[in-house]
Amino acid sequence: MLAALARLPPGPLRAGRLVTPGTLLRWHRRLVRWRWTYPPKGGRPCIDAKVAALIEQMARENRGWGYKRIQGELLGLGYRVGASTVRRILKRLRIPPAPQRDCTTWRQFLRSQAATMLACDFFHVDCAVTLRRVYVFFVIEVGTRHVRILGLTAHPDGAWTAQQARNLLMDLGEHADRFKFMIRDRAGQFTGAFDAVLAGAGIEVVKIPPRSPRANAYAERWVRTVRSEVTDRMLIAGPRHLRMVLDEYAAHYNRHRPHRAWNLRPPDRADVAVVPVTDLATVRVGRHEVLGGLIHEYQRAA
C-alpha cells in the first residue's frame, strides 16, 4: 500500500522525496519492537553493595589475585559469586586484571622484609655533674619495634662493639634464626669483627650510604623518642643511673607505650585483643608511675 501511494505524487516530487525504503522498514521494525516489548519480570538480583565492597578490598589488598581466586575466597566466606560478576565489578571500579596490577610497591616490599630486619645505632648522653659523655648502643627489631639496650660505655671501640654483638645473639637465643639483615651506619665503632660475629649467625650486615641517616630511619626515630621522653627531661648522674633509667624506659616502651605502627598497641602486646570498656562508671582505672612519675601508665584495676 505504501509503495502504491508513493507513485501518486508527480515525478519531480517523487525524485526529491527524503524517505528511503530502508528508513521505512526501520520505522516498521521499531513499531513491532515497541508493540511486543514486555516489562522485565525477575532475572538475576543485583549484587549486594557489601559484597562489591569486599571484592574491591580483596583486589586492592592482593594485587596478584585474579577473578577465580577472589571467587574462591568469597566462597569460603559463604558468598556465591560468579567469576564474571567479579570481573564486571572490578571493571566498573576501573581495577585492571591481576597481571596488570601485580606490582609490588616499596612500602609492601619493606613491610614484608621488616620481620627479618634489625637496626642498630649509638646515641650519647652527657652526665650532669662530670659532663662525661656516655654512649648507648641499642638494637631495634624493625618488624615489632622491640628495643634492646645492649650496653653503655664512654669509649666505644671495635672490640667492645663486637662483644655487644655476641651479647645480642645470646639474648636472641633460638629466635636469632628469624633475622637475616642488620642495618647499621658507617661509624668507626663497627669493624669487621662486628660483621663477622653476625655473619656467623646467618645475619647479613647492610651498611647505609654515607651521610644518609634516613636510611636507618627506625633507629633514628627511636633516638628522638627516648630523648624527648626521658633523657632531655631529667639529669643523669652517671652510667649506672643512665642504665637504670634506660632499662626501665625500655620495659615501658616494649610493654605499655602505644605505637602507631601497631594500631596504638605496644610492641610486645600487638597481638593481644583490646577489651572494650562499656561503662567507665563501673570500671576502676589504676595509675602506675614510671621513672619516679616522669611517665604514667594506666591500667584497669582488678
Please explain how this structure is put together:
The protein is of the alpha/beta class and 302 residues long. Helices cover 41% and strands 15% of the residues. It is built from 12 helices and 7 strands. The strands form 2 sheets. The protein has a 5-stranded mixed beta sheet with strand order 3-2-1-4-5, with helices on both faces. A hairpin with a 4-residue loop joins strand 6 and strand 7. The model has no long low-confidence stretch (mean pLDDT 86).
Keywords:
single chain; 302 residues; alpha/beta; Nucleotidyltransferase, domain 5; 5-stranded mixed sheet; two-stranded antiparallel ribbon; 41% helix; elongated
The CATH architecture term of the domain at 119-262 is 2-Layer Sandwich
Order of helices and strands: HHHHHHHHEEEHEHEHHEE
Largest sheet: 5 strands, mixed
- Rg is 35 Å
Output the structural class: alpha/beta
Shape, per Cα inertia axes: elongated
Q: What is the tally of beta strands? A: 7
Classified by CATH, the class of the domain at 119-262 is: Alpha Beta
CATH structural fold name of the domain at 119-262:
Nucleotidyltransferase, domain 5
How much beta, percentage-wise? 15-25%
Mean pLDDT: 86
Approximately how much helix is present in the residues? 40-55%
Contiguous runs where pLDDT drops below 50 for at least 5 residues: none
Distance N terminus to C terminus?
A: 99 Å
By DSSP (H or I, 4+ residues per run), the number of helices equals: 12
